[in-house]
């Protein structure tokens, strides 16, 4: 069986590689379910639309997407099928981190591989109700994304990592993490 990386790992790895390891340890059962689903569902546009996610009013929400070329799968936030617009919402966006872009690019490439046409990409910061347009990625971005995915796939999670206390304080795994004694701000 082919192995696919969750699209969410693309940002998690930029934030802290060790968070992926902890996610696997503490949330392993869910991953088994996730890895099975997109392989059944994600290969063509018709497949995902014909299963749980039928577009309502030309809006497709929370659909699974999969890219065989990149070896990733995940859920999109909102696709406006008629407007050919993909939107990823986050509670608050102060900075467009590279990891955010990797997630959105991966969703875009998966959708186009599945037969969708996308002409517009946006982030949406819910707190400020702000739309942030993102340039459509091309071959340069595809190559960068693929290199990032390969880096994750080959990463030795037992190697030393740089612990950044500022990140730890905003990491949901802080209470479980053996690399820090800090509590996260959500505690
Ligand atoms: S608590 Fe810190 S070191 Fe541990 S996974 Fe989170 S960010 Fe990484």
Question: Could you characterize what this model shows?
Answer:
The chain is α/β, with parallel strands linked by helices. It is 40% helix and 18% strand. The protein is built from seven helices and eight strands; from the N terminus they run βααααβββββαββαα. The strands form two sheets. Strands 2-5-6-7-8 form a five-stranded mixed sheet, covered by helices on one side. Helix 1 runs antiparallel to helix 5. The radius of gyration is 17 Å and the shape is globular. About 11% of the residues have low confidence.
Could you list the spans in which at least 5 consecutive residues all have pLDDT below 50? 31-51
The domain count comes to: 1
Bound molecules: iron/sulfur cluster
- What percent of residues are in strands? 15-25%
* Spatial strand arrangement across the major sheet: 2-5-6-7-8
| Tally of separate helices | 7
Query: H/E order of the elements?
Result: EHHHHEEEEEHEEHH
- In which range does the helix fraction lie? 25-40%
How far apart are the first and last residues' alpha carbons, in Å? 39 Å
Estimate the mean pLDDT confidence.
Answer: 84
- Give the total of beta strands: 8
Characterize the biggest β-sheet. 5 strands, mixed
| Structural class estimated from helices and strands | alpha/beta
The whole-angstrom Rg is 17 Å
Identify the overall geometry. Answer: globular
Features:
single chain; 187 residues; alpha/beta; 8 strands; 40% helix; globular; binds iron/sulfur cluster
In short:
The protein is α/β, with parallel strands linked by helices.
